[in-house]
Prior knowledge:
Elements: H1 2-22, H2 26-34, H3 39-43, H4 54-57, E1 58-61, E2 72-79, H5 90-93, H6 95-101, E3 104-109, H7 119-131, E4 137-139, H8 151-157, E5 163-169, E6 172-178, H9 188-198, E7 204-208, H10 227-237, E8 243-246, E9 253-257, E10 260-264, H11 268-271, E11 273-280, E12 284-290
Parallel strand pairs: 1-5, 2-3, 3-4, 6-7, 7-8, 8-10
Antiparallel strand pairs: 2-11, 5-6, 9-10, 11-12
Helix pairs in contact: 9-10
Amino acid sequence: MVKSISKIFLSVLSLAVVCLVIGCDLNVDLLGLFGSNDLNERLTEKNNFRYLIDSERNFNYTTPVPDPSDPILFSFIVLTDTHVENGDTTDLRKIKDEIINNNARFLVNIGDMSQSGAEQDIQAIIDLFRNEITVPCYPVIGNHDVYFGNWPVWKENIGSTRYRINGEIDGEFFTLFILDSANAFIGKSQVDWLEDELETANGKVFVFTHSDFFVQDKIKIQQLYDQAERARIMSLLRGKCDIMFSGHSHERVIKEFGGVTYISIEDYKSTLTYCLVKVTKTGVIYEFKNL
């Protein structure tokens, strides 16, 4: 009896330590995680875009009078971990002015958009993106977005969790790849898809996924846990990708490998921080801004 109690105590203690290490909310992360769904189930939803329209997935945008002396061809905003809860998008709504002030052409929200995948939260985000923000907004699925069995909410309101965006702005081509890593891995079929799609990518290439590739502190658990998968992705992106973005760990980590910049962004929820990316005539630059 004593041994059984000791085992239970150690198990609970171990879970608590893990949660402290990776920054979990005990109620949401543990209970929600057990109620999340399988990655392969989500990847069967191919080309199901209830939220994105054709003109957003393959769009051509031209300014009325482009300035030939301006070194910035176009810019866009990336943010993550907004954790919208109870339908409250007050903080997320603040990004509207930043889009206007920086002349950003689109926005990417790279996961944990909601706190628990609740329909009122997903719908509130969609309503904001569709009705109030005047540029295309691209959603990336995170682990919180599928908690408590809420994958059907994403499926019915947003659609596919893996997709490609082809774009052209003032004659400058670019390609965005959105990957589903909400279960802390990407999976062979999805990596195979990325490999095939990279062969036809035009212009600047940016990849977005929720789970981060790297963590800053050695005591923290590696989020994208399949090392071989990570190595393969990094090999595929070498010479073909400009920046790969992630979130999840709620901290900023920047690494450079094979000519690719890997950026993990701190959470928007508590820091109101976003990354402004500028595509210039000579390359890509980025900066972090706080509201």
